[in-house]
Amino acid sequence: MVMSNRVSKRGTRTFYLLGRVIAGMALVMLLSAACVQPPWFATWYAAPQNYNIIFPGVTVPPLAISNQSVRQIVHTSHGGSLIRVKLSNLFGTTPVTFAEARIARSTGNGGIDPATDRTLRFGGKGTVTLASGEERWSDPVYLQVPTHSDLAISLYVPLNTPVVTTHTIGMQTNYLSPGNQAGATVMGNATATTVYFWLSEVDASTADASDSVTEQEAHPYKVVVAFGDSITDGYGSTSSANRRWPNDLDNRVQAAADDLGRASVVNAAIAGNRWIYDGVGPAGVTRFAHDVAGVSGATHVLILLGINDIGIGELIPQQNVSADQIIAAMQATIAQAKASGIKIYLATITPYNGASYYDAAGEMKREAVNAFVRSANGADGVLDFDQVVRDPSNPTALLPTYDSGDHLHPNDVGYQAMANSIDLGALDD
């Protein structure tokens, strides 16, 4: 009976000590996660849109991928050593299966550096199926990604799958090839495309053990989201050269890292987008929650949007909008940004005299909207892009030196001028 009590007491004490050890280990792990792992921040973004939806009366031929690999090139903003990738079937009406997904450093022309090639896993699995409407993050992978580097994200789609969720005007050469070539150093029989398929965001983390919570609070990460239409998407710039105005701004931001701290600039524009009506992408006022507030670490948003509301509204009478409607959408978005704790900067709408949908009525709307943007509108600041790129001798038109040729979209020089006009001090808040 005495032995039984001793055994019982010894067992109780053993379980007590074991419990303390387990609790201690759990605490260490929690503290480690809180103190060592910095937060995720977006380093690249492409706003998803429905490939099949353009403007009223405009259709596109259906597109599908079957037993093909797609290699997509992304140009990072601020780098890191831990990476995750978001795949999106946001607008899909059927599931999409990726039998393999990989990430590697790009060597150009569709090639990859095999020493950097990593499998992307989802919940530990190398194959993932996204239901219609679903988006999913990959598991983190350790990969040293320098600031302003090119990554290749390769997906193998084995089944005949309709293409719905895309970013159509990517201004970047991507590659499609037959069969499973996701891990190929160079894909054979590849064809070029400028579309991004099912890919919406790449995040980075420094995974730096020297970054304590106190240091992170003293030098918080900044993620600047550029939000708009084709002028922000970079239409008219040199393809595959990263000459959109958000890229040019990012070059300045990284050069000023000693003053600004760690920051990234990502592009959430959709060519053809509007404030009021869905069409090429959801309406700006409704997609803000996904494409700005939903971007990892978003702290600032720079918005240039409205010219398509004006121009397309003049072409499609049933979707004609007033300056007051555009202004109301801007005010609603200012409120969304404030509620999300995101600094918001509105840009004046750039000139478009000579563009295919220009007319005097539309110009009056543009000037009324710009007067609102320049006023005390409740935003955190104004980007006066109109003043930067207009022709002083003809203020309703782009300066010829900045005109890509369609009298609507700036060229590389014009986009650089827009980026140069932004006061970086606005991002130092």
UniProtKB/TrEMBL annotation:
Q: Residues in domain SGNH hydrolase-type esterase? A: 226-417
Record Pfam families: Lipase_GDSL_2
SUPFAM superfamilies, per this entry?
SGNH hydrolase
Does the keyword field hold Nucleotide-binding? no
The UniProt keyword set, sorted, is: Hydrolase
This protein's record includes keyword S-adenosyl-L-methionine: no
Entry protein name: SGNH/GDSL hydrolase family protein
Its lineage opens with: Bacteria, Pseudomonadati, Pseudomonadota, Gammaproteobacteria, Lysobacterales
Q: Which InterPro entries match?
A: GDSL_Rv0518-like, SGNH_hydro, SGNH_hydro_sf
Source organism's superkingdom?
Answer: Bacteria
- Database matches in Gene3D superfamilies: SGNH hydrolase (3.40.50.1110)
Q: Which CDD domains match?
A: XynE_like (cd01830)
Q: Name one GO molecular function term.
A: hydrolase activity, acting on ester bonds
